[in-house]
Amino acid sequence: MAKAPRPGTVKTRLHPLLGPQRCAKLQAELIRHTMAVTTAHTPSAYLAYAPNDTMAAISTAVPAGVRLLRQCGEDLGQRLAAAVTDAFTDGAGPLLIIGTDAPTLTADHLSAAFTALEHHDVTLGPALDGGYYLIGLRAPHTSLFALAPDVWSTDRVLAATRALADGEGLSTGMLRPLRDLDTPEDAAALLTDPALPTPMAALLQPKAEAMTQVSIIVPVLNEESTIHSAVSRLCRDFPDCELIVVDGGSTDATAELAALHATVIGSERGRAKQMNEGARHASGGILWFIHADTAIEPEALGQIRSVLADPAVVAGGLTLRFDRRTPALNYLAWTSNARARRLHHIFGDQAMFIRRTAFDELGGFPDLAIMEDLEMSRRLHRRGPLRLLPATSTASSRRLTAHGTWRMIAFMQYLKLLYFAGADPEAIRARYTAGPRLFPKRNPAT
Questions:
Q1: Domain range for 148
Q2: Both 238 and 313 in a single domain?
Q3: What is the C-alpha to C-alpha distance for residues 104 and 66, in angstroms, rounded to an integer?
Q4: Are residues 84 and 148 in the same domain?
Q5: Sheet holding 353-355: strands in order across?
Q6: Do 157 and 256 reside in the same domain of the chain?
Q7: What pLDDT, in 10s, does the model give residues 154-181?
Q8: What is the pTM of this model?
Q9: pLDDT tens figures, 351-371
Q10: Do the Cβ atoms of 47 and 35 come closer than 8 Å?
C-alpha cells in the first residue's frame, strides 16, 4: 500500500523537520526499500497506489513484474479491503499486506509472517505507535478492515483489529514490533537504529544547507500581464532558489504562464491562505514572499543569507522604492522604510523573508482578510529581531497613482487605524476594495 511521492501530500507530519520536497524523496526511498525487500522474498508482488492519477509515476519506481492496483475506497479500511479482494481474486494467497512506513523492514520479517500463517489465520506485525506495519491473511478476511473511520491513524488500530479477529474466531500470530516513520520523534529514534538503511539515514539527517536554502513564494490572482516577466526575472536572478507560484483561482492565463518557469500550485483565494499553502509545499529553510508586480534587486539573496546567519534574527524585508519617482511616492517609500526600521512593521511589498522555524512555530500567516503581513511582522518581532536590508524591492505604483497617491496614503493610514482599533479585518478588506472615498475629488464644475 503506497502513496505516490508528491511533495506536499506525503509524510506531512515530517514537514517541519524535512520540508515537503525531502519528504517526497523520503517516500520514494521508502517505496523502493519496501519493494526491494518484497520482491527479493517472493516472485508475486502487488503495489496498490494512490492517488489514481499517479500510475505512470509509480510504475517507473517499482521493479519489473510487480502488478499495480489502484486503491479504491473512502478510508484506509475500504482501500485495504479492496486491494485484498483484488489480490485474492487474482489467485494470490496466503497474502501479506505491508505499508511503506517501516524503514527497518527486512526479508526476515516476511519469512516470519509466512511461517506464522502456517499455524494462524491472521498474523500481525505491531508498530510501536499502536498500529501495524504488516497484516497477513490466509483467506480474504476483509471484515478485519471494518474499523470506524476515527480509529484509523490512532494508537487503537492494532487492538481494534485483534478484537475483530477474536470476534470472528480467527487465530492471530504476532511478529516482532517495528517503528513506523511518521513523526520527528520517529525520525530521531530511527537515526540511532543501526538497522536503518543508509539512504534513509542520509535523508533524515539535518542538513546545514537546507537551512540556507531559499524558497520564493509568489501569491497570484489574475496577473496575466505581469506574471511571465516576474517569474522569468526571478529565475534569472535567483537560479538556486526554489520558485513556487500559488494561484488563488485565476480566470486568465496566469497559472499557465507561470508554469513555464515555476512550480504552480492551487489554493483558496486570499493572500494569507495562498502564502501558507506555498510554504506548505516549500522545502527551504528560508521562506521569501514576493509579489508578482515587484522587482527585486539581485543583491538581496546574499544579504538575506548573511543576516540570517545570526540565529537571533527571525525575519526581515527589503528597502522599498516604487517604479515611479514623485514627491508623494518618495515620501511613502521613506516613511515605509522608517516604519520597518523603528516599529518593525514590514508589509508585503517589501518582500518579507522569514526563517522557516519561526514561520512554523507561529503557524504561518494569520488567516486575515487584510493586514496579514502587518500582523505577521508584529508576531515575529515578539520572537526576535527583524532586519530591513539595503537591497531594494521596487513595487508597482499602479493602484496608488490610479486613485491619487496622497489620497491613497491617507486612506491606508485610515485602514491601519481601523485595524489597530480592533475593526473586523473582513470589513476593512471590503473598505479597501471599494477604494478611497475619504477625500473625494472636487468636481471642477462646482
A1: 2-204
A2: yes
A3: 21
A4: yes
A5: 263-266, 242-247, 214-220, 286-289, 353-355, 315-322, 386-395, 294-296
A6: no
A7: 899 999 999 999 999 999 999 999 999 9
A8: 0.57
A9: 999 998 899 889 899 998 888
A10: yes
